[in-house]
Description:
This protein is of the alpha/beta class. Helix content is 33%, strand content 18%.
Amino acid sequence: MGDRWKHTALLVVDMQKDFIDRDGPMLVKGGKAIVPNVIDAVQMARQRGILVVWVVREHDPLGRDVELFRRHLYSAGKEGPTVKGQIGAELVDGLVIEEGDYKLVKTRFSAFFATHLDSYLKSNGVDSLVVIGVQTPNCIRQTVFDGVALDYKSITVIVDATAAATADVHAANIFDMKNVGVATPTFQEWSESGA
């Protein structure tokens, strides 16, 4: 069983202050509630020897690398969301990048889009993904669907360590991911399983 975890990566997506605990345009309403399970999932991953990958947004202060529909949030004299080096881009309290973890910066919803994540994972023998963080309809879903397209053997989304603005949006997106072969355990189910 331990050998299986050597081929697994935990992707911790966008667990940053602007998304979780700072009032502003990027706040994910369900985000705060999942922080304890995210902390526990990271701890469990480390115990199992799973590679922990911190997927974060870090944007240019002028917003030149954000999606077009968000550029207005970075107008002159205004600090936009998740700007590199600013408080809003920091991980929420309780989450810390440790030695042996890997940090990946993205500027779009998917952790795979215009990044080297796929080659990094495959060159480190990873063929299975466990995905946690925010938010379910955007970064979680896009990352998962790209993982499916890239033929990762096993993809798991821990349902109570991911969140969206509402429970209904979360459930609908979990349903869609389940329909493309994604496993959707609770944290407790995942922690008690060998998968």
